[in-house]
Design brief:
Blueprint: E1 5-6, E2 31-38, E3 42-50, H1 62-65, E4 68-70, E5 73-77, E6 83-86, H2 88-101, H3 109-122, E7 134-143, E8 155-165, E9 176-180, H4 198-202, H5 205-213, E10 218-220, E11 237-242, E12 245-249, H6 259-270, E13 275-278, H7 282-291, E14 294-301, E15 305-314, E16 317-320, H8 328-341, E17 352-355
Parallel strand pairs: 1-3, 9-10, 9-15, 12-13
Antiparallel strand pairs: 2-3, 2-8, 4-7, 5-6, 5-7, 6-17, 7-8, 11-12, 11-14, 14-15, 15-16
The structure holds pyridoxal-5'-phosphate (PLP).
Length: 356
């Protein structure tokens, strides 16, 4: 494992207090982690330095052809002051799967985890402790060759930044309204949908703006070929409880394999609920909503953990789910996952990793 050099910030910023609002992704801590890649040399010189702007050539490849990968996970402070990460091995494995698809060199998983842990330790006073708050961790890689031709870059930067974040729903779990998109698509099989990369997000913006204008907070994507099968919600995976069975779209190459999705499936199975990972068409969903067998809908993702869905719109049909209230499985998943993340419930799966 590579040794990380640490340069402390001599001008630390004031740390937000419990009364300060923590709007997602707006405040950054005093330090950042950086490691360079050079062809022939591999990843080298991991370091922690004061949080600061990057200096890059305007010709850096990331600006032109989007060769970049990112991840998202959180650190939590328990009541007894321990710092926990939730399933970081899954994020690191997925990061390297994304790297593989995007022609970015693999990062040694031990160096990756050591980078996260060391940075979180340096900025541990920034981990907020109010209920529902956490320290969001954003690792990412950018292609830095100064070159306008199209090929994989031969130099990269791997960077980790940290951001204290508030409760996703300050008033507690709140059902969201979801727009089922039938014009734009997010990803196609064989494309980059299963990689966590900026390109998938820029593809989603037009539909997101359209949905927001109609009063919807999120877009539910259909498959890119037939626009018939349900995929995911862009930053969340999607679950339905239909007639007692938990159904979620199977991973097909264009859906992002969420860590929270995997956690939800494991817990539901453990609780004895039938779980099906399969293709589900929008017609089946509409039929279930109409005949009363659609019992619950929720999204799963690191940011909100569980997001109950109270309202769906597909073309000119609008469906209210459970009259906009929170379903029992959604609530139990939220309580269990956040309970484990905060060290309040026993971690029988060994999902948490302590930073010490
Ligand atoms: C990150 C992400 C998710 C959720 O994944 P988690 O690991 O559960 O946070 C779902 N869909 C997309 C497109 C994502 O980028």
């Amino acid at each position: 494992m590579l040794e990380i050099k640490i340069e402390k910030n001599k001008n630390p910023k004031p740390i937000p207090g419990p009364e300060d609002p923590l709007v997602f992704g707006t405040i950054f801590t005093d330090h950042m982690y950086v490691m360079d890649y050079t062809e022939g040399k591999g990843w080298h010189d991991p370091r922690i330095i004061p949080y600061q702007p990057l200096v890059l050539e305007p010709s850096a490849m990331v600006f032109h052809y989007g060769q970049e990968m990112f991840e998202g996970l959180k650190a939590y402070k328990t009541e007894d002051g321990r710092i926990l990460l939730f399933r970081p091995d899954k994020n690191i494995e997925r990061a390297n799967n994304s790297n593989h698809r995007l022609m970015i060199p693999k990062i040694d998983p031990d160096d990756f985890l050591n980078g996260i842990k060391t940075l979180v330790k340096v900025d541990q006073d920034w981990i907020p402790t109010k209920p529902g708050t956490s320290l969001y961790i954003r690792p990412f890689v950018i292609a830095t060759d100064p070159f306008l031709g199209v090929r994989p870059s031969s130099t990269y930067k791997f960077i980790i930044i940290l951001s204290p974040v508030g409760a996703y729903y300050p008033e507690g779990l709140n059902p969201v309204k979801i727009w089922i998109e039938d014009e734009y698509v997010r990803a196609v099989r064989g494309g980059i949908g299963e990689a966590k990369t900026g390109g998938n997000y820029v593809a989603s913006l037009a539909a997101q703006v359209k949905a927001h204008e109609e009063g919807y907070s999120q877009v539910l994507w259909l498959d890119g070929v037939e626009r018939k099968y349900i995929e995911e919600v862009g930053a969340m995976n999607i679950f339905f409880k239909i007639n007692g069975t938990v159904v979620t779209p199977m991973l097909n190459g264009s859906i992002l394999p969420g860590v929270t999705r995997d956690t939800c499936i494991a817990l539901c199975k453990e609780w004895g609920l039938p779980v099906e990972e399969r293709r589900i068409s929008v017609d089946e969903l509409v039929e279930a909503a109409k005949n009363g067998t659609l019992e619950e809908v929720w999204g799963s993702g690191t940011a909100a953990v569980i997001s109950p869905v109270g309202h769906l719109r597909y073309e000119n049909d609008v469906f209210e789910i459970k009259d906009g209230t929170i379903g029992a499985v959604s609530q139990k998943l939220y309580d269990t996952v956040t309970g484990i993340q905060l060290g309040k419930l026993e971690d029988t799966h060994h999902w948490t990793v302590e930073v010490r």
